[in-house]
Each structure stands twice: as structure tokens, then as C-alpha cells.
Amino acid sequence: MIVYGSSMSPFVRKVLTFAAEKGIEVELKPQGLQSDDPEFRAASPFGLMPAFRDGDFAISDSSAIVAYLEAIKPEPALIPAAPRSRAQAIWWDEVADTVFVNCMRKMFFNRVVLPIFLKREGDLAEAAHAEVHELPPLIDFLEARIPDSGFLVDDRLTLADIAMVQPFVNFLHVGASIDAERHPKVADYIAKIHARPSIAQWIAKERGFFEKAGNVPNR
Length: 219
Ligand SMILES: N[C@@H](CCC(=O)N[C@@H](CS)C(=O)NCC(=O)O)C(=O)O
Fold this sequence. Notes:
- It is a single chain.
- By secondary structure, this protein is of the alpha+beta class.
- It has helices at residues 10-22, 38-43, 62-72, 83-117, 124-143, 159-173, 184-194, 197-211, and strands at residues 2-5, 27-30, 51-54, 57-60.
- It has a 4-stranded mixed sheet.
- It is globular and about 45 Å long.
């Protein structure tokens, strides 16, 4: 099975983490933004990453891909079967992919994608505004909702956690830290899930990229 894209994308990393937690082996075929590689385009008609292929079946969109992975290998179950739990897991996936990623994009695009990948100037004022005004209320929101178990749904790891921690990898890449005094649950939650081998391997690779001279995100 092939995943097309870059792990720097929270959507691509979500699929890679999900596959690893399932014990499904996938090969990552690197693609840049709006790649015109025909193999990638055949799986992703709108040019968005991730795209995915399993033999003669191709699909894109991270949520569609993880639904496929869950269906072909039901255990361990990462998308709960019980109606309310399933709805909650899908809701968290959606909140992560939209509300949190929209804030993250302003920071990551302007501090990393534009200056480092596309060699264009980023709007650092927009990034700073998102970090100071948009991110703290989102972290407040999450702080109020993390159960004592440390998992968002059913007191065990599900798609909800796998999706929610992805934008935080990118927040941390661009220097936005979690204040453990104000947000102790979020700080602990993110650290614990980011330490799981399924995601830690990608975080380490991405950090390695930024540690190379000249790849330090602007603030
Ligand atoms: N809903 C999609 C979003 C995919 C997406 O927006 N990917 C970004 C990278 S983070 C992309 O490919 N952007 C290229 C573009 O907007 O042209 C998913 O969950 O996979």
C-alpha cells in the first residue's frame, strides 16, 4: 500500500500514524504540494495530499483513507463501532482537520512552507496573530475536554487522538509551546501521544530536517 505526500502535512501524518497503530505496512512516496506526478494525480484528482493506493484501488483525503484502513483490518479498532463513540471520534477528527488545522496553517505556511519550501516570503504578522490570539482559546477548549484516562473517546486510543495530536506537531515545529501551567492536561496528553512510536518516528524525521542549517522556521 502506498501513501503519497509529505509527513509534514498533518493529514498525511495522520494516515501514517493510523496505519502504524493498526500494524498495516505502508510505503510513503514523497510528493510536493500540488505535485503533477500522474500516479499521485490518479489517486488525488484535486492534487491534495495524502493520496493512497492499494493495488488497483486509489483514493484521497485522510479521513477516507483511514476509513478504508479500518475496514480492511478491523483490529485494533481505532474507529469505534458503538454509535455515540463513533460519532464522537469522527467529530474530533473533523475538529482537528478544520478548526485546529486552520489556525496551524497560518503559522506553518508562513513560517515554513512559504520561506523554506517555496522560497517566498511568509506573512509573519499573520502567523504571530494566529499564535497569540487564535491558538490559546483552542488549547483552552481542549484542556477542558481531555478525560482523566488521557484519551478523547472511550478511554483508549482512537482516531480522535490520532487526528487531534497532528496539528500540534506542526505547532511545535514553528516554536509554539504549550504552557504546562495553564494547560497541564494538554501538555501531558500531547507529550504522551507524541511519544508513541507510530508518530514519534515521523516527528524525529521532521525535526532532523529542521535541524539542518538553514531550515530553521522564521518567527
Ligand atoms: N481534507 C483533506 C485535506 C488535504 C489537504 O488540504 N492537504 C494539503 C497539505 S496539508 C494540500 O495538499 N494542499 C495543497 C493545496 O492546497 O493546493 C484531507 O484530510 O486529506
